[in-house]
Amino acid sequence: MRILLVEQGDPKIRRYVVDKLICNNYRLTLINELNAVWDKQKFDKVILTRLSNWPYIMENVIKEHETEKFEGVLCFNEGSIPLANKIAKLLNLPLISKYSGDSFRFKDRMRVAFESYGVISPDYKILNSRKEMYALKDWEYPLVLKPSALMGSLGVVKVNSYEELPKKINYPLCADFELNFDGEIYLLVKCTVFQVQY
User: Fold this and answer.
1) CATH code of the domain made up of 2-96
2) Core-most of 9, 15, 99, 196, by most CB within 10 Å?
């Protein structure tokens, strides 16, 4: 079976997935943003492009699919889900469901999924506005503030004391990352929601 992988990710935490797929006789084609492709020999084909260059991606994916059909589209991180779904829709393949994608992307939903399977997680609290920071007065410090739906440690900040909180709370509140796929804008975070954990 042939799988299209959208973005390769970090080899330290992604290589085992690629190895497992190859062990199970999947053949992989990779669409990747960077020239630094790790283990290039493991992929049947590598398409290097800007991930925002939808016309180029569409043209190449259709050509590849006509040559030999893909059975599915796979991605490793939440930022790639909109593009992976757009490609899957174009090729009439199954999409990553919104429910599944959200449980990876939104850290509060991820915690609920973890808890339902008995996975131990740090304590956390979702705050919806700056004024809710007062609920953290009795928490044990240091804390880590992070947007509930972002990646790559964007907007993540350590707070050493309650007195330091008002100075640092805007980092996760204002953090955002914009993805543009074929003129559709995807914002990865809602600026008024973030997570606090310790």
Assistant:
1) 3.40.50.20
2) 196
Q: What confidence score (pLDDT) does residue 174 get?
A: 78
Check whether the bond before 147 is cis (ω within 30° of 0): no
Q: Is 3 exposed, middle or buried (0-12, 13-18, 19+ CB in 10 A)?
A: middle
**How far apart, in whole angstroms, are the C-alpha atoms of residue 62 and residue 64?**
5
What are the pLDDT digits (tens) for 22-63? 999 999 999 998 777 889 999 999 999 888 788 899 999 999
Q: Where are the beta strands (DSSP E) in the chain?
A: 2-6, 27-32, 45-48, 72-75, 124-127, 143-147, 157-159, 178-181, 184-187, 194-197
Answering whether pTM is above 0.70, one says: no
